[in-house]
Structure formats: C-alpha cells, structure tokens
Fold each of these.
Amino acid sequence: MQQMFLRQQKYIFYLLSLYTLGWGFTSYKTVFLSLILGTVISLFLLWSLVRKVEKFGRAVAQGKKARSLGTFSRLAAAVLAAAIAIEYPQYFSIIPVTIGLMTSYTVIIIDFLLHKNK
C-alpha cells in the first residue's frame, strides 16, 4: 500500500509541476491555480485515505473494532476547496478545482492499469 501511494504521489507531483509551469507561463492563471488547489487537496485526501486504510487494516488484523475511513473529513476538505473557489472567483474557478479534486482518482486508475500485469 505504501509503495503504491508513493508512486501515485510522484505522479501527482509531476502534474503539480506541470500546473505550476502553466500558471507561470500562460495567460490561464485562474485555470492552473484552480487545478493546483484541487490537486493539492486531492493529494491530501489520498494521503488521509491511505493512512486510515492502514489503521483500519491493523485494527482488523488485531481483532479490534475498526473505525470509519473518514468519509466526512474527506468530504469537508472537498467542500473547503469549493468554498475557497467560490469566495475568491478572481483567483479560482470551480470547474478546474473540481477536476483537480478528481486527480487522485484518475491517477489511481492509471497506476492500476500500468501495474496490473506486474
């Protein structure tokens, strides 16, 4: 699980570097800044999910009662990203923020497809 997360984190950092270059060198600053915001929160959500799945797995293996995977906290982080985009429309746009929030799921799917045969 940790190796998979590190691989996915690396891919997301590559995307973030591309978004940063796009923000710095194009006239689409709002779009790229929104993608950066959504992707950073998406990375945080991925990290949080991996951490909670590991705790969940340890609790199940030890026969202890397992807590939830933190759906509410992840939903709250996504709402925070949307609230920031709505509050500061001169810097952010809601559609690219939403696309950025979905980045980790896209990376997970691509990572699975690349490594399913290994």
Amino acid sequence: MYSIYAKMWYKGVSFTSEQCALFYLVDTAGTRTTTDTFSDMSQDFSLSVFYSESRHGPACVQEATTALSAAQYWLTDEGVENWIINNVRVSQTPDGLVRIARNSNKYQLRTSPSNGTASLTTPFLHCTASLGQTSHLFVRRGERRMHYDGTSFIVRNAGHSAGFDDNNQLKVY
C-alpha cells in the first residue's frame, strides 16, 4: 500500500501519492497538475499543536481545580455515564460509544470501539472514519471533499472530481 497526501486549502484540494511524480489540484476550474508541496508529516508534531495557544502549567492549577470541582456527573437508567466539565459534555454508553460535545452539539466528537467508527463535526468540518468491511476516511469542508476506502481515493471541489484508482492511476470523473 502506498501513502497518499492531500490538503484542503483556499485554492481547492491538492493531492499526490508516494508512487506519483505529479501533484494535482482540483479547483473551481477542474483538475490540473500543480507545483504545490506538502509538509513533512513523518515526525510527531501533536504536542506542539496541543500546547499551541493553550493555558497550561502551574499557573493554571487553580483554574483547573475550580473547573473540576464544578463538574457534574450522572448515570442514566440505561447505564450511560455523563459528565459536564467546563461546558463540555462527555457521555459513554455501556457498549463504549463516547460522545464529546460543546456549544449545543455544534462541536462533536464520537468514537465507538464496538463498530470501529469515529467522527468529528464542527461548523467548519465533518470527518468520519471506520474500520471493518466498510473501511473509509471521509473529510468535508464546505464544497471540498476527500474520500478514501482502502482502494480508491477521490477528491471533490465545486462540482469537479478526481483521484487515484486501485492501480494508483489518476482518474478524472
């Protein structure tokens, strides 16, 4: 299996793969080659993203303690555990489904170990992923979309679609 690289940005959706010498852009005019580049994502950058512009460390201990002491917890008759911490609701069902939501579900993260699915929804982005017989990764941001199902990769933007087929060949739809 080869790696595919893709990004959604103001110009459209750019993509390439390890096996492809060209970079493609799907924009409002259609599909074409481009000189776009991709950042090296092979190193772990999660901590710098997590801590960027966050309040953390000893100076925030009292604020965190206050938020935790104001947290609410309850268990429903169906066995669903619920927490509200600093206006973020976390719930977990007996089968392991976890939902995290903020601002009346405008921001929501769901994971389910029983069926191998995850989803993230915000006012700006919707993403789903699953394992198993219908494995896939889907990302939507406005008119831009990406979908990968383990064999083919397709991007869509402004009514235009292109991607790689199961032979890693460019296909324009």
Amino acid sequence: MTSPEEPVVEGARDFAGVPDDTQRLWTPHRMAYIGGQDKPADPHDEGQCPFCAGPRRSDEDALIVHRGERAYVILNLYPYNAGHLLVCPYRHVSDYTDLDRDEVLEVGELTRTAMRVIREVSRPAGFNLGMNQGEVAGAGIAAHLHQHVVPRWQGDANFLPIVGRTKAVPILLADTRRLYADAWP
C-alpha cells in the first residue's frame, strides 16, 4: 500500500497581487491606530495627551466640533462608526468621579446636544453612549476621561468588522466635522 500524498501548503505571499474573486477593502491608515502611533508614551503627562493637545490647535486641524467652557466635542480620530464624537473635559482627569459638578453638567449637556446635532445631520436610528474607565475597560487613552457618542444605523455592523476586521466609514472626518460644527446651535 502506498501512503496518501502529503498536502502541499502554499505560502500566501506567493499569491500577493494575483486576481481572485475576493473583494478587498484595504485600510492601511488603521495601522497607525493598531501600532499605537498616537498613544502617549506616558499617559499621565498632559504634554503628551491628545485630548489636552487638541484644544491648543485649530478646530479644523484637531477635528473639534464645539468648544464649551469646561469641555469640548471632538470627532474620534479612529471612529467605530461615521460621526463618532467624543465629549472631553479640558481638565486632564481620568475618573468620572473626579469631575466637579460643573464639568459633569457640561459633559452631560454637550452629550445631549451632540445627539441632537447628529440626529439632524446624519439621521441615525440610535446611539451608543459610554465611557471606558481604565485600560482594562477598553479606554484607549485612559488618563483623560472622554464620553463616546456613537451614532448607529440598522445593519451598520455588517460582515466587514466581523469577518474582515475592517470598518467602512463612508465620510471623511473633515467633512463630518464641518457638517456637525455648522449644525451646532
């Protein structure tokens, strides 16, 4: 008796660029996020914190939609969905319980206004709101508190994030910032 032939394993690199029936959505810009390019080396150093640095730049460059007295609204540079906003206190504080009363009120009011503006401009079916407190809870920048305001549409969590680990965002951040800033009361 002869033994069955060993299967031949071909390396994927041998087929790079060879046409097939698979559609690919290449998102090399995501490597900056995956590699931690914009994460501060020392998260407690306010000089390295992107949420402390943002307000020192122009609204357009920093993607700031609105500036309040104690907090501001900025587009997420690595959005979960199109129109994903963050509400950040100006003060470099990591824990919600460390906000003072006026900061809590303004973060809450800016979150409510953000939802109204997003509804007017983008017509989502719903929202995810939340704060990830600490790295273990999923906070990308744990040292500076920020509230996520994520618009959601029916079917927006399609096969791409599940199978392809890719999120299609159909509008440029600068265009979203302009639309939201123009609609802000």
